[in-house]
Design a protein that fits this description.
By secondary structure, the chain is of the alpha/beta class. Helices cover about 25% and strands about 20% of the residues. An 11-stranded mixed sheet has the order 1-3-2-4-5-6-7-18-8-12-11, sandwiched between helices. The protein has a 3-stranded antiparallel sheet with strand order 13-17-16. A two-stranded antiparallel ribbon has the order 9-10. It is globular, with a radius of gyration of 24 Å.
Length: about 475
């Protein structure tokens, strides 16, 4: 099926291989290279029958022999806006991969400016945000629709920091997901298609979009082999800290009172209250009812009476940022560090790193050493925290790789790589000059990053929690 409305020169720009007259929603797909239909040929089979799949065929790509339109991008967007009008009779989403993500974003903005319906949801994958935070370009008016930015767990060049820039392009909810698999195969990931199906279900497509909502009202479902990372800003106003302090346990209140500086007390209160609020949402419990116990090695865990879900978690904070990692039945450790330029990296490496790590670090160029130090340090700390042994176990008794883009290989003392088969270590940049890493026992299929807000996670949500 082709959409025939619009000027004759736009005929054939959008194609639907399997028309679904009873569809309740439609997803328009914009590919990163030629042969759009080939990249999305499995989508009609893998998505629910109430979702119709439409692919965009741009000039100079696939079956279109015309000259490429990239040289006149505004004209391309104008033509697409005319050609797509016939397909706007249903709730619809845009999915764009690579440069196709930029096309989908610009087209959504063009539809808004023309007074046409805009996508119910914009999915972008494999592409950094259209403008860097430091870009001199004039800021654009954000879209009101939610944006989901998706990437690959194995993509060393396009990680959380690059994808996170998409949050500035929406005044609505923003979601960031990393999936397993090679980047070129991302648009065929079953997990990605599950996410699209969930957002475009008839129930979801009828929900209004809150233009100021920036974080989930309730925690998303957590399934096996999934990782949820929560980014927590600790610089909260005093008015927010008072009710947060009421979430703490008596022991946490005593620990908070021992801080001499008010800043350190605030950071402790916010980070631990946020942890309790997040866990309480997964468990369907008020924050002060979440029972946390601390093992001999110092690692916190849920008490057996805290709930039915086998949640495992870890908390780390540095300066004004905290991270919480949550999994089901998989030991986890997280570490975040602020990239301070005054840190004595050389002495720390000499004192705490293993011999092989010291040699590799010394071989780096001078300007590469500090970033490499933080990658190595956060990876090592995350691994020890996941095991629940802390720094007392000895940072020099095992090695990690810490060059940018390298898979993290764990080598235990004695030269064996046995731990590499049980532990996965991922490093990422949460932005703002911070470095972070996460260590997980076993493999994961999907990692999602969420921003915590003290105003949102307040009530129990047992019905929304995924149980095994």
């Amino acid at each position: 099926m082709e959409f025939d409305l619009g000027p004759p020169e736009t005929k054939g720009w959008f194609n639907c291989a399997q028309a679904r007259p009873r569809a309740g929603a439609r997803v328009f797909c914009f590919s990163f290279a030629g042969g759009a239909e080939r990249w999305f040929e499995d989508w009609p089979r893998l998505l629910p029958p109430e979702i119709e799949v439409v692919t965009a065929e741009l000039p100079g790509r696939g079956t279109r022999p015309e000259p490429r339109a990239a040289e006149d991008f505004p004209a391309l967007i104008k033509s697409l806006a005319e050609a797509i009008r016939a397909g706007l009779d249903l709730p619809f989403a845009f999915f764009g991969y690579g440069p196709g993500a930029s096309v989908a974003w610009e087209l959504a903005r063009a539809l808004r400016d023309r007074g046409e319906p805009i996508p119910f949801h914009l999915f972008v994958a494999g592409q950094r945000a259209p403008r860097e935070p430091s870009s001199p370009a004039a800021p654009a008016v954000p879209l009101l629709c939610p944006i989901s930015a998706c990437g690959s767990l194995t993509d060393a060049e396009l990680g959380i920091e690059q994808l996170d820039g998409w949050r500035d392009e929406t005044a609505g909810p923003f979601f960031l997901h990393l999936f397993c698999g090679n980047p070129p195969c991302l648009c065929r990931s079953p997990l990605l298609l599950d996410e699209i199906a969930r957002e475009l279900s008839p129930q979801g497509a009828n929900l209004p979009s809150d233009p100021v909502e920036r974080s989930p009202v309730v925690v998303p479902p957590l399934l096996p082999r999934q990782l949820h990372l929560w980014r927590i800003g600790l610089d909260q106003p005093p008015a927010a800290c008072v009710p947060l302090a009421e979430c703490l346990s008596p022991e946490e209140e005593r620990r908070a009172a021992r801080f001499v500086r008010q800043r350190d007390r605030r950071r402790f209160v916010v980070s631990h209250a946020a942890l309790r609020m997040i866990l309480g949402q997964y468990l369907g419990l008020p924050p002060d009812r979440v029972e946390i116990e601390v093992a001999a090695g110092g690692k916190p865990s849920l008490a057996p009476t805290s709930g039915l879900l086998p949640l495992m978690f870890n908390l780390s904070h540095s300066e004004e940022l905290a991270l919480v990692g949550v999994t089901l039945d998989q030991r986890i450790g997280v570490d975040v560090e602020h990239g301070r330029s005054l840190v004595d990296a050389e002495n720390i490496v000499k004192r705490y790193f293993a011999a092989g790590e010291r040699a590799r670090w010394q071989a780096l160029a001078e300007d590469e050493r500090l970033p490499a130090f933080f990658r190595g340090w956060t990876r090592k700390e995350a691994y020890l925290k996941a095991r629940g042994v802390g720094l007392s176990a000895g940072l020099d008794r095992f090695e990690v790789s810490f060059a940018a883009g390298e898979p993290t290989c764990l080598v235990e003392e004695g030269g064996t790589a046995d731990s590499a088969t049980r532990w996965q270590v991922y490093d990422f940049s949460p932005g703002g000059g911070y470095a972070a890493a996460c260590a997980i026992e076993g493999e994961i299929e999907r990692a999602s990053l969420y921003d915590w807000s003290p105003l949102r996670l307040i009530g129990p949500t047992v019905a929304r929690v995924a149980r095994r």
